[in-house]
Design brief:
By secondary structure, the chain is mainly alpha-helical. It is built from seven helices and no strands.
Length: 135
């Protein structure tokens, strides 16, 4: 994926790549070991992609495999920022915010989500502050 000759993402690969970045960014923001609750991630993926609970769990497992094979988070995010449209990145930022809101220390986690959204996904703070976070 990091190779200069890599082809652009196929539209069907975008949800998996963004889901992988969601998992990676949320885990890094929460520290080691990551305290992500699988049920929360699955629920966010299900809502975002209109999936059944089983389909969302399968998607999360696929996203975990992509996240494990992806380059470091900053490089991965930069690649996706160039390959994926703003609306998809904004939707991912809202998903990240939702996952982080469930963290044990939500205030610090939400600050991390905002920073990651702005600096890795290049989403503007004004768009992040929009009233309807669930896209």
């Amino acid at each position: 994926m990091a190779a200069p000759e890599a082809t652009p993402l196929e539209p069907c690969d975008v949800p998996l790549a963004l889901g992988a970045l969601l998992l990676r960014a949320a885990a890094e923001a929460q520290g080691q070991p990551p305290l992500l609750r699988v049920s929360v991630v699955d629920a966010v993926l299900a809502r975002r992609h209109e999936l059944t609970p089983r389909e969302a769990a399968e998607m999360r497992i696929s996203c975990q495999a992509v996240a494990a094979a992806a380059p470091d988070t900053a490089c991965f995010a930069a690649l996706l920022a160039r390959a994926v449209g703003y609306r998809e990145r904004l939707a991912l930022a809202h998903c990240l915010y939702e996952v982080m809101a469930d963290a044990e220390a939500p205030a610090a986690s939400l600050q991390s989500a905002l920073w990651l959204s702005e600096h890795l996904l290049f989403v503007t703070p004004q768009d992040l502050a929009a009233p309807n976070r669930a896209n």
